Amino acid sequence: MLRVLSAFLLLVALAPASWATIDTWDFETPEQQKRYITLTEELRCPKCDGQSIGGSNAPIANDLREVVYNKLVNGESDQDIVDFMVDRYGEFVLYRPRATGKTFWLWAGPFLFFGIGLVVLLVIIQRSRKMQKQPAVNKGLTEEERRRVQQLLDDDASGEGKV
Amino acid sequence: MRRVLLLLPLILLLAMGVLFYRGLSLDDEVPSALVSRPFPAFELPSLTDPDRKLTQDMLKGEISLVNVWGTWCPTCYTEHGYLMELQNRGVVIFGMNYKDDTDKARQWIAELDNPYKEIFVDDGPMGIELGVRGAPETFLVDAQGVIRYKHEGDMNERIWQEKFVPLIEKIEIEQIRSGGQ
User: Fold this and answer.
1) Which residues on B lie below 8 Å from A67 (Cβ)?
2) What residues of B are in contact with residue A92 (Cβ under 8 Å)?
3) pLDDT tens string for chain A (163 positions)?
């Protein structure tokens, strides 16, 4: 039983490794291979929204990997290859959207919100510092208040004595 | 004033919730990068007569549809009846038999009838030129051979009336105007 279980677990553990797409391309240089890996990771598979063409086994991803490889070997630049893809599949294929007018807020948004957050945080800190200083300015109870407190305490003490 | 400030994060959160919730039900249709560009050049064999080469020039002269299909694609089977219907109404449809077994494709046409004026055969490269993500896909091409729209998924009466008919009317008006000048 234990043997079956461990065999099963081993199978489950190894499965993802065998799912990964492994192509047997030959590259001329290690640098070319590195560019291939970067490109296939940065280009989104047009059919399967959540995956890069490097991470997908969809037929279209296979085709596009082949295109990337052929273009690399033919000496085209990364920019040429990315332009080729955008030309046909639109900006959609870019995992790293270009910084254009249309995508301005996409790029600026995080910094903008971080800035707003920082300002809010500073204001809050400033305020709480002011609050801490205030009791020092206001020197406790006035003479009149002190007398009244004493009276209340006295009254209470005498009341207790009666019980 | 302070109250409002305190409620602001909650209001923002709710607003984002509404925005994202709406995003869930949005159409995930990606507009084709090829819209308003000429149909890419090709020279590919005809399915019915493999010795004959077909080119993009056959798309010029009248408004037409180019339908990307394959026998491996179940949705293509679903839409086939509607393509026949469109053909009966006089719509010109060209077919691109995409990554298919040509014998099976010929059998499909023989058995289910042929809605296409011409069919050209592509093993994949033309699909990439066209930015095809899957099948079926249907391009609307004007009389100058320029792509005007692409629909992904099956063709049906709703899609035809909502997406294609208004655009075809617009193209026809354009043509009358440019012809008159």
Assistant:
1) 128
2) 30
3) 667 667 666 666 655 544 555 567 788 889 999 999 999 999 999 887 788 999 888 888 999 999 999 999 999 999 999 999 999 998 888 988 887 777 788 888 899 999 999 999 999 999 998 888 765 555 677 888 888 989 999 888 776 655 4
- CATH code matching the domain that covers A15-93, chosen among 2.40.50.140, 3.30.1130.10, 1.10.8.640, 3.10.620.30: 1.10.8.640
* Domain ranges for chain A: 15-93, 104-162
Q: In chain B, what residues touch A49 (CB-CB under 8 Å)?
A: 28
- Residues 121-140 on B with a CB inside 8 Å of A are 124, 127-134
Task: Assess whether the previous peptide bond of B136 is cis (omega < 30° from 0).
Answer: yes
Evaluate whether residue B6 is within a structural domain: no
CB within 8 Å: A49 and B34: no
Flag whether B78 is in a domain: yes
- Dihedral, CA of residue A62, residue B127, residue B159 and residue B82, to nearest 10: -100
Host domain of residue B153: 27-180
Token digits of residue A143: 């003479």
ipTM, 2 dp: 0.79
Report whether B34 contacts B145 (CB < 8 A): no
Structure tokens that stand for A81 in this block: 């290859």
DSSP B135: S
CATH number at residue B66: 3.40.30.10
Residue partners of B123: CB distance under 8 A and separation at least 6? B99
Higher pLDDT, A92 or B49: B49
